Amino acid sequence: MPSIEDDIKEEESEKELSRIFPLSKRGSREYQETGKCIGEGIRIEEDHQNVNFDKKEGNKCRAEKEATCRKVEEKRSGNQGKTETENDTSGKLEKKQVFEAFKNLQNQWKSLSEEEKAIYEKKADEANAERIKQAKEWWDNVDPELVKLENLRIDRINVKRKEQGLKREGKVKNPFFNGGKPAYAAFVKDMYSQNIVSGNPIENSKHVSEIWKTLSQQEKDFYRQSVSTNS
């Protein structure tokens, strides 16, 4: 089915033919050939216009894209220039806020009565006691050979840190050590002396730890008492 555009083209061709040929010659071959040429000429002209239009639109899109890219680049450059200043300002503001919050807490604490302070002090003491208890349990159950290996590793690290002029790392130390050996250490020594375990301490540590956990409280107390007796 012919489109509206085809009808318009045909109408334009008819008008042009009417202008060139009189009514008596409109059925001739010359008339028909001329009509074809006119129609083809209209199509070629339209194609040329479309090409020009596409070029104009393409140039327009390209120009708009380049303008957008320039704006983005300018904005990015502006942000990069402000980054350090903004970060410094943000960091100073954050420190100031922390200081102000800490100062407010100090003032609130000072405004509390002795009875109110006692409530928080009790909670703090309970939390500290729980942490100390957990630390003692850990030191009671840790394999001393693993502690030695860890300290050897720290020694090697400290050699490099000394060469680099850096501060030495502290070794792993039992804060509850009172001159005697921890109960678990005595137990481990007993395991090796009885040849229950032998060889690599790392490979045996898990096995020894599992044996220690199976001991009753009375058996563990035996090692604790032996430690206190020999200390």
Automatic annotation (TrEMBL):
InterPro entries (UniProt xref): HMG_box_dom_sf
Keyword Lyase on entry: no
Region (Disordered): 1-28, 54-92
Keywords attached to this entry: Coiled coil
UniProt xrefs under Gene3D superfamilies: High mobility group box domain
Skewed-composition ranges (Acidic residues): 1-14
Keyword Coiled coil: yes
Coiled-coil boundaries: 110-169
Name used for this protein in its record: HMG box domain-containing protein
Organism the protein comes from: Smittium megazygosporum
